[in-house]
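Dear H.,

Thanks for agreeing to be a second pair of eyes. The structure we're designing against is below in token form, covering all 302 positions.
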């Protein structure tokens, strides 16, 4: 009906490219997205929001392919156009800032990443709303960057925000939550070394959480000791849930050394000694306040 050089044809190419991108078929995605871009440049010229959208979509594909400099090149083109033709607080601009921040984060250029994430922070929460799935991811990145820079108070602020949104809108076992909790835990313990006033805030954070240990395979010392599945950790070396020593530091300290561990599951307390490796993965998880009370009662019986 329209011939090759029509905006509707470009939209179809763009949509097909995005589907291939979602499927992980990045070469076909690039082929269709480049077709869309070519038509849009002919139809609209360089300074048009649809052209910026094409640049942004191609940037995402290059990011997924691990071609980060190419990704940055296309994201920057999208940003330049968007800043020229859109309101400076438009969500599309915020999303491009976030994408550029992610690329710099992967490249471990953390100062640049922080700069672009903070620009995204000025736009996205107000324009998209706190419940939008982009927002907790943005908070996670900011929290991680502040953690890396040893700004632990800010790290806690943003990481706790991200966990709150995920737990209110998604599953408490969301992988991002499981990845985030240990960083909040470590940040609190670092700050408590010099600021004891945070102790009540830390206790509230831990009031519905527990450290667990999960057997990682059948041919491990833990499996040979008759353990299987997931347990709550009551003691590990001289660490216990109420101590202000980090379990992660304790685990590192005992690497390659004899160690005792006390586990809890289904009302049973289990004590084990290992000479070296255990073969269990430690995770901080949300267990709920009732389960936490049960765990504390078990701990009192030791």
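And this is the sequence the design step returned. I haven't edited it by hand at all.
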């Amino acid at each position: 009906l329209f011939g090759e050089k029509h905006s509707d044809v470009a939209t179809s190419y763009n949509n097909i490219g995005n589907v291939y991108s979602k499927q992980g078929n990045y070469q076909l995605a690039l082929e269709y997205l480049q077709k869309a871009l070519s038509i849009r440049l002919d139809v609209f010229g360089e300074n048009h929001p649809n052209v910026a959208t094409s640049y942004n979509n191609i940037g995402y594909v290059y990011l997924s392919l691990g071609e980060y400099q190419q990704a940055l090149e296309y994201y920057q083109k999208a940003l330049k156009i968007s800043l020229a033709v859109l309101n400076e607080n438009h969500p599309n601009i915020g999303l491009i800032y976030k994408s550029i921040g992610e690329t710099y984060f992967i490249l471990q250029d953390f100062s640049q990443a922080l700069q672009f994430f903070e620009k995204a922070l000025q736009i996205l929460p107000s324009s998209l709303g706190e419940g939008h799935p982009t927002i907790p991811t943005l908070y996670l990145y900011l929290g991680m960057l502040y953690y890396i820079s040893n700004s632990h108070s800010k790290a806690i602020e943003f990481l706790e925000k991200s966990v709150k949104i995920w737990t209110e809108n998604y599953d408490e076992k969301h992988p991002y939550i499981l990845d985030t909790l240990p960083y909040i835990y470590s940040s609190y313990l670092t700050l408590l070394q010099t600021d004891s006033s945070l102790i009540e805030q830390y206790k509230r954070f831990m009031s519905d959480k527990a450290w667990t240990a999960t057997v990682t395979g059948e041919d491990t010392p833990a499996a040979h000791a008759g353990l299987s599945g997931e347990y709550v950790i009551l003691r590990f070396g001289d660490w216990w849930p109420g101590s202000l020593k980090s379990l992660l530091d304790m685990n590192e300290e005992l690497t390659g050394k004899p160690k005792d561990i006390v586990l809890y599951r289904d009302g049973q307390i289990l004590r084990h000694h290992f000479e070296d490796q255990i073969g269990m993965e430690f995770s901080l998880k949300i267990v709920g306040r009732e389960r936490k009370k049960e765990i504390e009662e078990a701990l009192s019986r030791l």
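Two observations from my side: The mean pLDDT is 95. The chain has 14 helices and five strands.

Warmly,
E.
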